[in-house]
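Changelog-linked ticket: NDP example.
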Amino acid sequence: MSQKFAIFGNPVAHSKSPQMQNAGLKHINYDGIYEKHHLENGNEIKEVFLKNNYKGANITVPHKEFAYENADEIRGLAKEIKAVNTYILEDGKVIAYNTDAPGFLKAIESFGEVKNVLLLGAGGTAKAIALALKSKDINVTVLNRSENKLDFFKENEINYFSWENFKPEIYDLVVNSTSAGLKDEYLPCPKEILENILKNASFAFDCIYGKITPFLALARENNCEIKDGEDMLLFQGVLAFEYFTNSKADESLIEAMRKGLKEE
Ligand code: NDP
């Protein structure tokens, strides 16, 4: 029987997950289809998932926390992140995972060993990244524009600052997990703070993909090795795909999914 998968979001029209996941399904000759599902009310996510007979789903903005609240069982680091991006149906139960966190770790592997990270931003993505790094015993400091999203990091014993009270150290990797640079040309924090940090750093990673953001441009000017968020998007998708299809991804599958992601 053909299986159905979906991505839930609001908005969801821009999502590249269907082209990436369908390329993967095609590559392994899996009888299934992955579609976009616009969802208004995040509290209905489990009900809608079951009613549509989905075998698996991804969840994007703004429903990741609702998806966490509504799942029957949460597995892995998602229990601490308290937000999930993947649902699978297992024996009639909705099982939830967060693949953004391991996807990020996989994406920064190409930098080699990293010990001390400055993470710009404190939104949903920052929570997943901070706990992913902590799980690998990598030192992480969060720096955010405002104070109001910092409680989560305090509760999880992660160093945190706002722009107002920041006391910089030396970091080998700087990560932009803010939305600054996505649809505008802003830096994720004031240039006078950022430039000094980048001068002493080796690597810069931006969660935004498909463009050189002002953050990556400044990092490059300061001789950092830079990387955008494409691999993070790819690897969260690959890990979700493994759960969806109960299979192990090999290099040829990963490349097929990357090609799918890049299709216009
Ligand atoms: P959230 O809305 O949860 O958080 C946004 C964060 O950005 C907040 O900390 C906010 O600070 C900060 N921010 C927004 N605008 C500015 C600005 N002009 N200057 C400085 N800080 C700013 O977003 P998400 O965590 O969901 O997503 C963050 C980014 O990560 C997005 O660009 C998204 O596209 C990208 N992303 C990439 C993924 C990938 O796979 N590559 C996966 C998921 C997300 P404040 O608290 O002060 O408002």
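Closing comment: Example verified and attached. The pocket of NDP is lined by residues 61, 100, 121-126, 144-146, 149, 177-180, 182, 186, 188, 207-209, 229, 232-233, 236 (CB under 6 Å). The first strand starts at residue 3 and ends at 9.
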